């Protein structure tokens, strides 16, 4: 998992805060991600939500020695509140990853972005695949 190889990270100011078996935590600054309403651009939020889920799934796959081919298959996102501050993003597994009949693994994740007051500003559900070589 080479975060440095993902070019939008630097442009959006996305930073990894920490990652363990239970969660991956990232930050996204308001500066550099404002839209025309002076709130955090939804596209920037979506990028970090997908990335956080991908990172946690990739970390799990590496721990299980399943390789590094992780891809998002499907997702759903909601934006219940405008984001006016820097964001803290937390990705967690909905349930343990499971092996599919195809041999690939499926990982369902929930990722939340909260503002500096702890208010939910975006919520993402991602269906990731760990592809076997």
From TrEMBL:
Pfam families: YiiD_C. Residues 11-130 form the Thioesterase putative domain. Coiled coil: none annotated. This is Putative thioesterase.
